[in-house]
Amino acid sequence: MKHMLLFLALVTGAMLPATAQQPEFRRLDGSKLATSDIDKEVARLITAAEVTGVGIALFEHGRVVYLKTLGMRDKEKGLPLTGDSVLNAASLTKVAFVYMVMQLVDEKVLDLDRPVDKYLPKPLPEYTRYQDLAGDLRYQRITVRMLLDHTSGFPNFRWLNDDHKLNINFDPGSRYAYSGEGMELLQMVVETVTKKPLEELMQERVFRPLGMNRTSMVWQSKFENDYANGYDEYGRSLGPLKFQQADAAGSMSTTLADFSRFMQAVMEGRGLSKKSRELMLRPQIQILSKHQFPTLNAETTDANNPIHLSYGLGWGIYETPYGKAFFKEGHADGFRNYTVCFDKTKTGIVIMTNSANGEGVYKGLLETLLRNSFTPIEWEGFTPYDQLPPRPPLKQHKEVALDPVTLEKYAGRYRVSADLVLIVVRNGNHLTIKEGDEDHEMFADSDHDFFSKTADDEITFVVDSHGPATEMIFQTGGRTMHFKRIE
C-alpha cells in the first residue's frame, strides 16, 4: 500500500492553489515549456535519481508561475510532500540572515567595513568560543563585509580541522573560502548590537513582513502537522531536523511556499534600499578555487572565468548572456536545496528536497526547466545522478544484546572541542547519543562497538580494565573523531 501511495504522489504531486500556476513557463532563451511537461520531467528525474521528495518553484518576471511538490515527506507513513511541508533550509538560512543584516546596514547599525571586533564590549578572544584566536591578531582585521563574502580566513567549521580549533588560514579579505563560522560570528555581533536574539530579529524583520508564517530559526510546535523527514542516499529516514537554538549558518526551518515568498522579495528588493540590494548582489571577490568544498583547498582553475564566478554579500554571482545570476545552495543531512535567479529578467527557480540524492537532479532541472547551462556544477560539487559511481553496499551489522551494567559504562559526556560535546545515555537496551538538538540511536554489535540503523555512523568505546569508558571513537561521513570522556 505504501508503494502505491508513493507512486501516486510522484505522478500527481501535491499542488498549491491553481492561481500559482500558468499553462506555460517562458525559459531564459524565450522558448516555452508546458507545465504538464515540467511535471513529467521532474517526476522522471526524481524517480531515476531516487529522490524522496522535491518542491519546485519557477519565477517569471519576479512572479511565482509554477509551484509544485512531488514525492513523499514521510515515506514510511505514505505522506506526500506539500508546499507547506516544513523542511530544513540548510545554508539557505544564510541568505535570509544576510537580508536582515543588510537592513541593519541600511539603518547604519552596521558598517560593512568596520572590524567586527569593534562592535563587541571586549576583545574577541576573551569570549570562550573564540579563545583559539588569541595568538593571531589578524582577527582584528575581519570586517562585516568579509564575513558576508566569505573572505574571513575561517574554515567552514572548526570541527573539520584536525585539532577541532578555530583558526585563520589566510590574510582576511585576500581570497574566498566559504565559512559557516563567519556567519555564526556575525550572528553574535548582530545580537550584541541589537540586544535581541536572532529568532526575534528574523521574525520581526523578515519572516512576518514577508508572510513566511511557517518559517523560523528554531523548531515550532505548529510545524508538527506537516513536516518532512530527511532521507539518506539509501532512502533511510534520518527524521526531521528540529533546531532548538537559532544558528545563522543553517538552523532555519521553512517551506517551499515560504522560501518562494522570500525569493520574490529579494528580486524586488522589498525591505532594502536600492543601494543595499545592488551592493548585496554586486561581486565582492573573484572565485578562483577549483571546488567550493573542501573550502580551504588551494587548487585553482580558470574554468569559471568565462562566467566571472564571484561572491557578493551572502550570494554567489555569475554572468551569462542573459545577464547576472545570483544563487545559493543548502546542504544538510537528508536535505538538499538550491536557488538561482537571473536579475535582469527576474527568471528563477527554487529547488528543495528531503533527500541526500537531491543534488543529482540539479543539472537536469536547471538545464531543462530554465535553459540554464551556465551553472558552475563542477565547482559546486553537484554530480548528476547518472554520473555517480555505483553506491557501495551497506555494511551489515548484527545487533547483540548487552546487559545494563555494560551499557552504563558508556554513559557520560564526551568532548572533542570546546563547542562539540556529545552526551551518551543508556536508553533501554541501546544507547542514545545527544548532539545539540539531535538524538542518534546506537545499537551494539559487540561489547564495545555500536552502529546506527538509519545512517553509516559507528562508534567504538575505549575502556580501561576496571572503570567506565575513557574515550569514544566516532566514525561518520568518512571522518574519524576522538571524543575524550569529561564526566
Describe this entry's structure for a reader.
With 487 residues, this protein is α+β, with helices and mostly antiparallel strands. Among the domains are: 2-80 and 230-237 and 252-387, no CATH class; 404-485, Lipocalin (Beta Barrel). The protein is 22% helix and 25% strand. It contains 11 helices and 24 strands. The strands form 5 sheets. Strands 1, 4, 5, 6, 11, 12, 13, 14, 15 and 16 form a 10-stranded antiparallel β-sheet that branches. The chain has an 8-stranded antiparallel barrel with strand order 17-18-19-20-21-22-23-24. A hairpin with a 4-residue loop joins strand 15 and strand 16 (347-353). Helix 3 crosses helix 6 (198-207). The protein starts with a helix and ends with a strand.
**How far apart are the termini?**
48 Å
Helix/strand class: alpha+beta
Based on CA inertia axes, which overall geometry fits? globular
Q: Beta-sheet strand percentage?
A: 25-35%
Mean pLDDT: 93
